[in-house]
Amino acid sequence: MLQVWGEQLALRGHEVTVLAASLSEKDEVQQDKDPRVVRLASFDPAKVQIRTLFEFRDALHAFFKEHSFDVMHLHNMFAPLTPLRTVLVFEEGVRHHIPMLMHSHCMNDTQMGKLLLSLSWDDVLFVSEWHRKETLGLYLPFKNTDVIYNGVRVDYFQKEKGNREQARRQIQASPDDCILLWPSRIVNPDGKPTTRKRLSTLLKAAARVKERTNTFKIMLMASAYGDKALQKRHLSAYDDLMKEGKLYENIVLLDTTHSYSFMRDTYAACDIMCLPSLDEVFGLVFIEAMAMEKIVIGANSGALPEIVDNGVNGYLIEPDNDQQLAELFLSIFEMGEGQRAEMGQRARQKVMDNFSSGHMIDDTLRIYEKYASP
């Protein structure tokens, strides 16, 4: 997402510098194309030694001596990075009298999240109205808050550009199979099942569907790239549901790279994108799939009602209602191609009208203009 931000802002004639982590042992600067990217080895969140934090502080001093900025826009600094790095970046920006904007892409109800949001940011940005409302309920001392919806490149995520037939051949789908896509990791980085994403709800619904028909496959996104044994171990967390529903023959584990091209072909291969998770702060996979004219199904929870108009451009089920989900699957299976296509077209139109990368950049610049020096 940050790549899209930088590229789109640069295309509009703005000078953009992205400060990011270098995964090597040395700092790197990429200046041959826009946006300019500065990578600091000491920015790597895996490096937690005190010495590295001092190196990061010194690198920040040098960075801000060399560059001047009208606005600093930080993305999710409290989630993937150590809190001290966030504070160091914040203090450096304040020292140089730069307006500081924090962009939150996840829930911040942990003690550390609350603490970092309590810094005197000029504006805290959220990815949905629901996300903003939930965070305001924490009663933190915000100066200002705004919403910038995530956006996708609608020129890239187009049905015609996805390689549907090749992708379906790779998973050995028959022409009659309805392909369901669950586009999330099976387990968290700590190896525990991703309960919030509710794969269990999908599997329970699939077991109900299988009592009526077996002409479907479920594509699951593998969490361990290339390690088949580890992928199967991850899936074993759901062994009871898989065995009870006799679903193993219906499951396809995708060995994913999470690249744009891979995701586009995967959306193209599927007929339904289903992620019945709870309290999504946005749901980027929904607008990607909708841009590809796919039928999407989510839970009536979190920010999803801001994206999906139930029965118009997708469907919302009640949280954890696997019976409702199963009935919905069966009704979609029975839809004619024309009816599916019409819903897919309405889904794409919703994205083009509200969630394109162009809209995202328009909203970003509107906020920048409030803080940038004339």
Question: How would you describe this structure to a colleague?
Answer:
The structure is a single chain. The chain has 374 residues and is of the alpha/beta class. It folds into two domains: 165 residues, Glycogen Phosphorylase B (Rossmann fold), CATH 3.40.50.2000; 196 residues, Glycogen Phosphorylase B (Rossmann fold, 3-Layer(aba) Sandwich), CATH 3.40.50.2000. The chain is 42% helix and 16% strand. It contains 15 helices and 13 strands. The strands form three sheets. Strands 10-9-8-11-12-13 form a six-stranded parallel sheet, sandwiched between helices. It has a four-stranded parallel sheet with strand order 4-5-6-7. Helix 11 packs across helix 14. The chain is globular and about 65 Å long.
Q: Which descriptor suits the 3D outline?
A: globular
- Alpha-beta content class: alpha/beta
Distance between the termini: 28 Å
Number of domains: 2
The proportion of residues forming helix, as a percent range, comes to 40-55%
What composes the largest sheet?
6 strands, parallel
Give the CATH class of the largest domain: Alpha Beta
Tell me the β content.
Answer: 15-25%
CATH homologous superfamily descriptor of the largest domain: Glycogen Phosphorylase B
Task: Point out poorly predicted stretches.
Answer: none
CA radius of gyration: 22 Å
H-E order = HEEEHEHEHEHEHEHEHHEHEHEHEHHH
| CATH domain fold name of the largest domain | Rossmann fold
Mean pLDDT: 88
The main sheet orders its strands as 10-9-8-11-12-13
